[in-house]
Write a structure and sequence with these properties.
heterodimer, A: 383 residues, alpha/beta, Rossmann fold, eight-stranded mixed sheet, five-stranded mixed sheet, 16 strands, globular, B: 281 residues, 8 strands, binds iron/sulfur cluster
Chain lengths: 383, 281
């Protein structure tokens, strides 16, 4: 451990623990949560580590309270996170929307399990992907990223905090039970100050400050509670002063900006990984744990001389639509394995827009795909 | 609202967003006087206004956050307390005030209310109790007296109400008081006491909503409605909290009910995690 409590070095640890360490390395000093399988280890790790780095852990009475507490902490100027799974994720949705509306940087980890409802609490699912995009009511845009290993649970948690601070939006880490619970080698490191992004801050005195006035970047500078700015922030539609503005023009201005600050910066936000796509006839498009299984299947296909490729989504929201559109011009078929009955496949199909076939390979949850099943689907796709 | 006369400026104006006036509250509503008491209590308690943060939920009372010229948050329905909890724990030098209504705090937010009391989080909750949901047109809620008529209890309410002081005291609050909006001085003092006392402090304010609750229960015009509450009041400090239930026409026990000292959540963090904190950067 270094002097400031940041752990460095190589460790064998699970994805949930790595996520907690990533948060601490990113400067997160507040965690509010509620125990839920398979995300509990994130909370456990935070409860032991935060006091060592001068942070605060609180176990709230439910996930609704947890989500609100991290919003409050963020407005006090402290980077904040919560972690949950399906049922808790559902409970957080209303106040995720408050986070979007108040433009509050924070990170929400969803270690997905199979649903609906209580479902399979201890077993994997990827059924919350559309909920991540559309789960809160109203018009908005969100950022969601999907790690596929404990190392990425560490690295992408740092990315999540950076994006959240930069765009003043809650960022979702859409992990899953396998990635959360699997143990692998993880390299923990201190994040260099220049690698850390901090929220834009006001440069004008309080009497000149308009809390929701943004420049071309569309992200307004954020004052913090207790600094003397005497600002107002409301979940109601508001104007640049933060005052409620109950009319369609104000709604248009605000909702557009909340969406556009993400949409117009997609290039900066979106990450994906590709292998063997240049000459591919069929591209397997997958994310999270399924991408690891799929990669193995694509490798097997290649060794049999089949022109298969792999597109692994790291950022799922905003969706990399331009890239899928381009690929659709070149490939015959997209094969989308996912641990649900068809969610991200709908986006792929929309972007492929009839230029390429789109085939779903669903798994209802409780386990991952068998690589042989994906290989079989690849073979069927090229026939 | 075009012919609404604006009152002359008051000495609490520096705490108000006067550019947002007139407010949305009905003339004669009890929320405005409560807000006035709170703003005067800030000075009385000699607080640094830069550090006072007001958090509200949803409803007529929830709009209070939008009228104060302090750092203020108008959050979602029922969630002011956990939002304020995050603010307080992340920045302990802030003075947190939750200003909201009975439906917001005791129905949809009831779980947060009792848990904040249990933890003894250092914040002051001002709960304007007008026995119904005013903003949505006067529906029954968790404080509506038995037999009272509301737009969703047209035959009289059969859903027993919470006795808020008893509930909050049992949860562990450090300070619990109840006054009506006509007890201006006592209310102002109670809020100032709450603001200066460490821990979870709760002030219930019995307030008229003549537009809905008063009209439906034939309690008269705003002023008559107020006076009827005043007449029904019995001041009883340290009252037995089993006797502070409120019925439709019966007595209303008011006063300072609880004033104790127990460690706040922040105190406990500091003492129990002392060793871990010593390692902090
Ligand atoms: S409806 Fe009732 S509570 Fe709401 S502003 Fe009017 S009088 Fe006050």
């Amino acid at each position: 451990m270094s002097e400031n409590g940041i752990i460095q070095g190589e460790f064998f640890m699970n994805g949930d623990e790595a996520c907690a360490e990533g948060a601490i390395s990113a400067g997160c000093r507040f965690f509010a949560g509620y125990p839920i399988t398979p995300a509990t280890e994130v909370a456990e790790r935070m409860s032991s580590r935060l006091p060592e780095v001068g942070g605060t852990y609180i176990q709230m009475e439910d996930e609704i309270a947890s989500m609100n507490a991290i919003l409050g902490a963020s407005w006090a100027g402290v980077k904040a996170m919560t972690a949950t799974s399906g049922p808790g994720f559902s409970l957080m949705m209303e106040n995720l929307g408050l986070g979007v509306m108040l433009e509050t940087p924070c990170v929400l980890v969803d270690v997905q399990r199979a649903g609906p409802s209580t479902g399979l609490p201890t077993a994997v699912g990827q059924g919350d992907m559309m909920q991540a995009r559309w789960g809160s009511h109203g018009t908005y845009e969100i950022i969601a990223i999907v790690p596929n290993s404990p190392q990425e649970m560490f690295d992408l948690t740092i990315t999540a905090f950076n994006l959240s601070e930069k765009y003043r939006v809650p960022v979702l880490i859409m992990s899953d039970e396998v990635v959360g619970h699997m143990s692998e080698k993880v390299v923990l490191r201190q994040t260099a100050p220049e690698e850390l992004v901090e929220r834009p801050r006001p440069t004008v005195p309080p009497e000149k400050y308009l809390p929701f006035q943004a420049d071309e970047g569309l992200v307004p500078p954020m004052a913090l509670a207790g600094e003397g700015y005497h600002f107002h922030a409301t979940g109601l539609t508001h104007d640049e002063r933060g005052y409620p503005a109950m009319n369609a023009a104000a709604q248009d201005r605000l909702a557009r900006r909340l969406v556009d600050k993400i949409r117009l910066n997609k290039k900066d936000i979106i990450q994906y990984e590709e292998a063997w796509v240049d000459d591919a006839e069929v591209v397997v498009c997958a994310y999270g744990i399924t991408a690891r299984v799929a990669r193995h299947a694509v490798q097997m296909a290649r060794s049999e001389g089949i022109r298969a490729g792999m597109l692994r989504l790291i950022t799922v929201w905003p969706f990399p639509e331009e890239h899928i559109r381009e690929l659709a011009q070149k490939v015959r078929t997209f094969l989308v394995p996912e641990i649900n009955y068809g969610q991200i496949v709908l986006e792929v199909e929309r972007c492929a827009c009839g230029e390429a076939n789109t085939v779903l390979l669903p798994h209802m949850g409780g386990g991952v795909h068998h690589p042989q099943d994906i290989l079989k689907a690849i073979k069927e796709a090229i026939q | 609202m075009t012919d609404t006369a604006m009152a002359d400026s008051q000495f609490t104006d520096h705490y108000l967003r006067v550019d947002r006036l007139p407010h949305i509250w009905c003339p004669g509503c009890g929320i405005g006087p409560t807000l006035g008491c709170f703003l005067r209590a800030i000075d009385r308690a000699e607080l640094d206004a830069d550090k006072v943060v007001v958090v509200s939920g949803i409803g007529c009372t929830g709009r209070a956050a939008g009228y104060v010229k302090l750092d203020s948050f108008h959050t979602t329905h029922g969630r002011a307390i956990p939002f304020a909890t995050g603010l307080k724990l992340a920045k302990p030098d802030l003075k947190l005030v939750v200003f909201s209504g009975d439906g917001d705090l005791a129905a949809i937010g009831g779980n947060h209310l009792i848990h904040a009391g249990r933890r003894n989080i250092d914040m002051t909750v001002i709960c304007v109790n007008n026995f119904n949901y005013g903003m949505t047109g006067g529906q029954m809620g968790p404080t509506t007296p038995l037999g009272a008529r509301t737009s969703t209890s047209p035959y009289g309410n059969f859903d027993p109400p919470f006795n808020l002081p008893q509930l909050v005291a049992a949860s562990g609050a450090a300070y619990v008081a109840r006054w009506t909006v006509l007890h201006v001085r006592q209310l102002e003092k109670a809020i100032a006491d709450g603001l200066t006392k460490p821990g979870f402090t709760f002030i219930e304010v019995i307030a008229p909503c003549h537009a809905s609750y008063g009209r439906m229960n034939k309690l008269g015009q705003a002023v008559d409605h107020l006076h009827s509450y005043r007449k029904r009041c019995i001041v009883k400090n340290e009252a037995d909290l089993r006797e502070t239930e409120i019925s439709l026409h019966g007595p209303i026990v008011v006063g300072k009910f609880v004033d104790t000292r127990r460690p706040t959540f922040g105190d406990r963090i500091d003492s129990m995690l002392h060793r871990a904190h010593d390692n902090k950067p």
